[in-house]
């Protein structure tokens, strides 16, 4: 549901999307997203586009606090591509800032399913956790959803390490799993079940009655 502040910002973007005078109102939306737990990628991209048009530090338009909050909120949307979309709009002179390179590395580790190194890196950059409340919870859900796409069951110690929480907390945060001895049973889904490969010809699936003549001829 769109809130009043969000709707007002969208109305502003219809007429003044490229007007730097719109930044204060758009920036207020970012602070509200962090404080109230909502998200709007269109507003955030509009801010970054204005930063891209006015990157000079002399102009003082680029607010690093707002920039980091936008990137962290985008990271929380993974596996959606929001983080890359936002990163591409960050002015070049800010790309090498330590906080931004750290976020980029975190995103790369998530994309490549390096979950244990991801948490290890995040713990070294504890200031990132403070940027947006609930960051670790959101990313833990992203990791769980990724694991659930592949596994029907997984050693409890492995999933615990992937999620960076003790084994006993996994069912508390993800009640859809069942602990069976030293393994967690994950819910079945179309993605984590083996699918029989259908015989095809020119992209058309062949049913057994169609294959029967071929199979019978092969017996002689």
UniProtKB/TrEMBL annotation:
Subcellular location: Cytoplasm
Record organism: Mucochytrium quahogii
Alphabetized Pfam families for the sequence: CSN8_PSD8_EIF3K
Keyword Protein biosynthesis assigned: yes
Subunit (UniProt): Component of the eukaryotic translation initiation factor 3 (eIF-3) complex.
Recorded family membership: Belongs to the eIF-3 subunit K family.
UniProtKB keywords: Cytoplasm, Initiation factor, Protein biosynthesis
GO molecular function, one term: RNA binding
Gene Ontology terms: biological process: formation of cytoplasmic translation initiation complex; regulation of translational initiation
The protein's name: Eukaryotic translation initiation factor 3 subunit K
UniProt xrefs under SUPFAM superfamilies: ARM repeat
Key word Cytoplasm present: yes
A GO-annotated cellular component: eukaryotic 43S preinitiation complex
All residue ranges annotated as the CSN8/PSMD8/EIF3K domain in the record: 66-195
Tree of life domain: Eukaryota
Function in brief: Component of the eukaryotic translation initiation factor 3 (eIF-3) complex, which is involved in protein synthesis of a specialized repertoire of mRNAs and, together with other initiation factors, stimulates binding of mRNA and methionyl-tRNAi to the 40S ribosome. The eIF-3 complex specifically targets and initiates translation of a subset of mRNAs involved in cell proliferation.
Coiled coil stretches, renumbered: none
């Amino acid at each position: 549901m769109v809130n009043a502040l969000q709707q007002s910002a969208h109305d502003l973007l219809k007429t003044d999307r490229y007007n730097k005078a719109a930044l204060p109102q758009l920036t207020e939306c970012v602070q509200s997203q962090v404080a109230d737990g909502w998200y709007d990628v269109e507003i955030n991209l509009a801010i970054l586009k204005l930063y891209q048009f006015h990157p000079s530090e002399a102009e003082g338009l680029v607010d690093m606090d707002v920039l980091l909050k936008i990137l962290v909120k985008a990271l929380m949307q993974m596996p959606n591509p929001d983080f890359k979309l936002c990163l591409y709009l960050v002015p070049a002179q800010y790309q090498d800032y330590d906080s931004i390179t750290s976020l980029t590395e975190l995103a790369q580790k998530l994309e490549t399913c390096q979950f244990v190194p991801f948490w290890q890196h995040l713990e070294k950059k504890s200031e990132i956790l403070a940027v947006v409340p609930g960051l670790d919870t959101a990313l833990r859900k992203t990791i769980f959803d990724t694991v659930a796409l592949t596994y029907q069951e997984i050693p409890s110690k492995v999933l615990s390490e992937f999620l960076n929480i003790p084994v006993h907390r996994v069912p508390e945060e993800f009640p859809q799993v069942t602990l069976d001895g030293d393994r967690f049973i994950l819910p079945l889904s179309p993605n984590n079940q083996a699918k029989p490969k259908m015989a095809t010809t020119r992209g058309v699936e062949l049913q057994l009655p169609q294959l029967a003549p071929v199979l019978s001829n092969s017996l002689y």
